[in-house]
Amino acid sequence: MEIIRKTLKAYVAALTSFVLLTFALAALISYTAFKESWAFGGLIVIMSLSTALLGFMEGAATGKRGLAAGAAAALIFVAVILAAAGAAFSESFALREGSLFYLIPIGAGAAGGIAGTNMGK
């Protein structure tokens, strides 16, 4: 039961950081000279930071297999974000050539999982 509580806490922390950083990116684009064409790259960085936090917390919660725990948690997180964005803003969901960039946040989650497991020891 403790593992489930820690996992939910990790997902809430990652989702909160993702939403707050996305609002900060939106403000940065709206009120500064930040190019709007860089928004996708900014979202990938924000998603990578959020999944690294998620992976770190998952790795610390499990205490073993940090790479697998972090990557799996990041994969679920990215899938939920993409499904929510696809449902809200698109009529159909399709993978495009830019979809490979979503592997970067999964790698960040795996790295966070490794760090979380090692910090927990």
TrEMBL record:
The chain crosses the membrane at residues 12-31, 37-56, 68-88, 100-120. Pfam families: DUF3792. The keyword Transmembrane applies. The keyword Endoplasmic reticulum does not apply. Keywords: Membrane, Transmembrane, Transmembrane helix. InterPro entries: DUF3792_TM. This is TIGR04086 family membrane protein.
